[in-house]
Amino acid sequence: MKLNATKIPIRVGKKYIAVLNEKRAHFLDLHAGDRVILKKSRVPSIRAILEITDNSELKETEIGLYEETWEKLKVDNYGEDVEIGIAKKPISTTYIKEKLNGKPLDAKKINEIIKDVVNDDLSDIEVSYFVSGCYVHGLSDKETADLTRAIVKNGSQIKFGNRIVADKHCIGGVPGNRTTMIIIPIITAAGIVMPKTSSRAITSPSGTADTMEVLANITNDAPKLKKIAQKAGGFITWGGGVDLASADDKMIKVRHPLSLDPQGMLLASIMAKKFSVSSNHVLIDIPVGPQVKVKTKKEGKILKKRFETLGKYLGMKIKVIFSNGDQPIGNGIGPSLEAMDVLKTLKNEPDAPQELREKSIMMAGLLLELCGKARKTRGKAMARRLLDSGKAYEQMMKIIKAQGAKRTKLRPGKFSKIIKAGKAGRITGINNKLIAHIARTAGAPKDAEAGVYLHKKIGATVTKGEPLFTIYADIEERIGYTSQYPLNKAYTIK
Fold this sequence. Notes:
Elements: E1 2-8, E2 17-21, H1 22-27, E3 35-40, E4 43-53, E5 62-66, H2 67-72, E6 81-87, H3 92-100, H4 107-118, H5 124-137, H6 141-153, E7 166-170, H7 180-189, E8 194-198, H8 208-213, H9 222-232, E9 234-238, H10 246-255, H11 263-276, E10 281-288, H12 297-314, E11 317-324, E12 332-333, H13 335-346, H14 354-370, H15 379-388, H16 391-403, E13 415-420, E14 425-430, H17 432-441, E15 451-454, E16 461-462, E17 467-473, H18 476-481, E18 491-493
Parallel strand pairs: 1-5, 2-4, 7-10, 8-9, 10-11
Antiparallel strand pairs: 1-6, 2-5, 3-4, 3-6, 12-15, 13-17, 14-16, 14-18, 15-17
């Protein structure tokens, strides 16, 4: 059947979407989510996902085409004939149903699902059903390994031959935890390749990618990233800006609204990003505490065992550590403030945040030992020497230049508000979530200079009226917006 093309001015990425009037859809026995074959004269046919509208503005004789579909079919004018035919649903939808029914999936079926996710042959609802099936019924260690391999197989990869390639990952939930940006310069200064893809903030005031973006370009394709790694020893780039583990990014999108984090999918998500850049020696940091993702050591030990098992399936050396998630690691919370902490640490400045410095040295030391660069128990001392000598800072400047330097002279937001202690005493707690909310309300991460700077940490003693933290913003009204939170409850003083 031929219908007249009309453009719908909406872009949705790579998906091809067509829209029919509900009467025409009923006539053709088509439903929302069905696949259709679209063909225009002298143009190859395409598969599209169907949407249906009861809006009378789309006539029965018309077919609405989202912009990507319009362009792919090379439609020049409104009213051009487009032929529509019925297409079968992808076989992967059958496998998704199997997972929803609790059946384990083999490598072939998982690969078929991921291939269709990458090719945008599944609707967001169908991808959501796959995530739901994994959430309700879980993924075995083998399914998790197969999912990891499928995500990597259906995306770009960066290969470094038989070289030792280091990587690290933090499970997250701790503000100001920018150890990556200190560890990578230390490790690459020791001559070990360390390519790192990082995420942007979703609900936090800054992700590693947001913080690195203050200093350098973070959007590069895979061939360019390999050249950067060969030139500088490593990189810190935004995972969403390169086609590495792209299926994972699409699944994260549908997981986010309900914060669905099936454990097997979370593990595959992390490991696929490592596997895609050929990492074979990986350090995993699991912060533990009531305010972070992993609440108890018991939960952490289960996760640790699964990481180690998955590492064996994938041929990776994995070391898992537990860290304290009770308070922010650095002093700055927000892209520019965190970047300032990183540079102060790399430059060995006296006001650099000591907890960030010591945690980074400890983790870098463990990676040096894991990679065989330092003998057991000697890694920490080696990492400290590389930092103290200025070699790590030189290496960071090399990485920034290779990626495309932006600036190294940083400042906080133009407007500020100091929050002071309401009484004298000892600080016994910091509310991570509240501090993060305040920083986001001030404008972080979108406004890079916005955020919170902590003057005091747990264990410090304060006098009444002494500054606890400063809120920074580039828009004055945002400082006022932060008053919606109980600012005086961000710290517990006893």
